[in-house]
Backbone:
């Protein structure tokens, strides 16, 4: 049994008001997850290794973050190794943590080292747990849909992993609403649990899928979203308003973000930068915060957002991002209308063809 060195204590993390605002998970996953989670992604095990990883996770945990997300593909498995190492070295109590990982792109690229076949789901889970040094993860995500594998095979394989005690729940990432619906139908037919969450991109410039396509799924399946790229890969921080600064994520991962960087010089990209500047002015003048805090708070305020994943590469970024919690109560209907006026991209509601809107009981 590992020795617990660092206990989770919400009273030392945030004010009591913020604890109430953060301590929730709005989906069918019946555990408590703090609204802001920490991601391994392109940083932990990639550009950030060694003691800085420990500093980031320690600061995140001490400030109330208890969900840590990674994937077999991140830094070819090194992200899972670094996260597992730090959890052990910090002596974090396993029951205080929500650990999630994702399967699809295996770290080696072999013929059976990817996708969502039963073989890779089972073998990939075992390898992820070995790298993490854990007996189980709380949620295991299908990192992408796999059109080459029957849905019944996918549903059965993830539930086999759950029955073995290697994961408590399974979920999806960047699946279409049709694919999530199919998985739910297959799971229901087989009497097995379906996916409990969707990890998707959602930010002020990417709204159609999380706000419109998924909308019928939220109440029907008690589905919640685990949001990544809430800052549009850093665009919504304002740091790219005047080009790509040295040391930024776009500069550090230039090959990965080449398409995004090139797009900044197009009419579409310049329009986004103009909107970021207008949002910055709104944030500073009316809310007394940065556009970063506004963008994070805007996503977190959405009633279907379960968790917002943060992609900080330094401890101080974690602390700064959490200031978004103070902005959420300030997002009044009037402020939200001003944001919509700047963005001009609110997804259109489904066509009703003149029929009145009804509530869940069929009433006007």
Residues:
């Amino acid at each position: 049994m590992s020795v617990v060195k660092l206990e989770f204590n919400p009273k030392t993390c945030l004010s009591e008001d913020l604890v109430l605002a953060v301590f929730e998970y709005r989906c069918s996953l019946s555990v408590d997850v703090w609204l802001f989670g920490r991601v391994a992604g392109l940083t932990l095990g990639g550009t950030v290794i060694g003691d800085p990883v420990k500093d980031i996770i320690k600061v995140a945990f001490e400030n109330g973050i208890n969900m840590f997300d990674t994937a077999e593909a991140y830094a070819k498995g090194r992200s899972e190794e670094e996260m597992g190492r730090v959890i052990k070295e910090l002596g974090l109590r396993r029951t205080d943590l929500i650990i999630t990982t994702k399967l699809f792109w295996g770290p080696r690229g072999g013929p059976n080292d990817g996708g969502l076949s039963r073989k890779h789901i089972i073998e990939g889970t075992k390898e992820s747990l070995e790298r993490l040094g854990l007996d189980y993860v709380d949620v295991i995500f299908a990192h992408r849909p796999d059109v080459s594998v029957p849905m019944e095979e996918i549903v059965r394989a993830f539930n086999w992993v759950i029955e073995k005690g290697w994961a408590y729940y399974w979920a999806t990432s960047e699946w279409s609403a049709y694919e999530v619906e199919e998985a739910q139908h297959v799971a229901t037919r087989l009497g097995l649990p379906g996916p409990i969450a969707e990890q998707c991109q959602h930010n002020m410039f990417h709204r159609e899928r999380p706000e419109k396509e998924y909308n019928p799924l939220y109440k029907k399946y008690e589905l919640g979203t685990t949001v990544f790229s809430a800052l549009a890969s850093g665009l919504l921080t304002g740091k790219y308003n005047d080009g790509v600064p040295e040391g930024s994520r776009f500069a550090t991962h230039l090959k990965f973000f080449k398409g995004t960087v090139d797009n900044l010089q197009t009419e579409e990209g310049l329009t986004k930068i103009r909107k970021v500047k207008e949002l910055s002015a709104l944030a500073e003048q009316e809310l007394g915060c940065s556009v970063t805090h506004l963008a994070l708070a805007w996503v977190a305020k959405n009633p279907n957002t379960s968790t917002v994943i943060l992609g900080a590469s330094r401890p101080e970024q974690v602390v700064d991002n959490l200031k978004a919690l103070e902005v959420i109560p300030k997002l009044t209907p009037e402020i939200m209308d001003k944001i919509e006026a700047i963005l001009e991209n609110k997804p259109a509601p489904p066509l009703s063809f003149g029929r009145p809107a009804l509530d869940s009981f069929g009433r006007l």
